[in-house]
């Protein structure tokens, strides 16, 4: 079996926030951040699959903290679980902050799903993922229920078949 680790796909993109990318409160426009997250996540998915990848779903995005003009924004994406042809990618968004001990603060996070496809857009099999750190293992373990939730919301799975998701509530 061909295994990869989350570190094999890690993708880190740092950029600043320009006036043309902000809303009327001078904070980063949400769609601009989503695009940066999608770009980093698609590179991470491509590094894992070594194939063409397409965004199948934006499963979750939490805009916890606003991002003011001039901020230095780092978007870090890693594959958190690989299924058959699809994979979940976690994206952590950090802001430089010289007053914090780490030198950065967490601003947002998101979870996207990508599918590896051939030249004709048909889904193709991808390598499996072996998580290493505690957080990688936690994200790996939760990925199946997030996939089932995403499929249910997209009308591609019956709620009754979402066994892993249902187990959360019973
Ligand atoms: C994503 C896409 C390839 C899926 O094609 P499909 O015919 O639905 O293929 P399948 O039903 O075989 O699904 C393929 C995989 O994607 C997963 N998937 C499909 N839709 C999903 C969703 N909404 N959420 C989570 N996973 C999803 C399936 O579970 C399956 O995963 P698995 O093989 O790992 O078990 C196809 O819908 C597509 O090309 N969409 C457009 C993508 C695009 O252009 N994105 C950019 C938007 S601008």
What do you see in this structure?
The chain is of the alpha+beta class and 170 residues long. The chain has a single domain, classed as Thiol Ester Dehydrase, Chain A (Roll). 26% of the residues lie in helices and 34% in strands. It contains three helices and seven strands. The protein has a five-stranded antiparallel β-sheet. A two-stranded parallel ribbon has the order 1-7. Strand 5 and strand 6 form a beta hairpin. The longest helix has 20 residues. The radius of gyration is 17 Å and the shape is globular. The mean pLDDT is 96.
Give short descriptive properties of this protein.
170 residues; alpha+beta; Thiol Ester Dehydrase, Chain A; 5-stranded antiparallel sheet; two-stranded parallel sheet; 7 strands; 26% helix; globular; binds coenzyme A
Describe the secondary structure blueprint for this structure.
Layout: E1 3-4, E2 11-16, H1 30-49, E3 52-62, E4 72-82, E5 86-96, E6 104-117, E7 128-129, H2 134-153, H3 163-166
Parallel strand pairs: 1-7
Antiparallel strand pairs: 2-4, 3-6, 4-5, 5-6
Bound molecules: coenzyme A (COA).
Coenzyme A is lined by residues 54-57, 83-86, 113, 115, 117, 121, 123, 147, 150-151, 154, 156.
Quick summary:
The chain contains three helices and seven strands. It has helices at 30-49, 134-153, 163-166; strands spanning 3-4, 11-16, 52-62, 72-82, 86-96, 104-117, 128-129.
């Amino acid at each position: 079996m061909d295994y990869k680790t989350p570190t094999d796909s890690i993708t880190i993109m740092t950029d600043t926030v320009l006036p043309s990318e902000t809303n009327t409160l001078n904070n980063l426009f949400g769609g601009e951040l989503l695009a940066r997250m999608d770009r980093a996540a698609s590179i991470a998915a491509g590094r894992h699959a070594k194939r063409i990848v397409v965004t199948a779903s934006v499963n979750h995005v939490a805009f916890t903290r606003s991002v003011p003009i001039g901020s230095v924004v780092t978007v870090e994406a890693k594959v958190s679980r690989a299924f058959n042809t699809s994979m979940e990618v976690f994206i952590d968004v950090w802001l430089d902050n010289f007053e914090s001990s780490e030198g950065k603060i967490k601003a947002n996070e998101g979870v996207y799903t990508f599918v590896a496809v051939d030249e004709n857009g048909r889904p193709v099999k991808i390598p499996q993922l072996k998580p290493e750190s505690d957080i990688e293992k936690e994200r790996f373990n939760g990925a199946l229920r997030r996939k089932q939730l995403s499929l249910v919301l997209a009308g591609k799975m019956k709620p009754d078949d979402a066994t892993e998701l249902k187990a959360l509530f019973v």
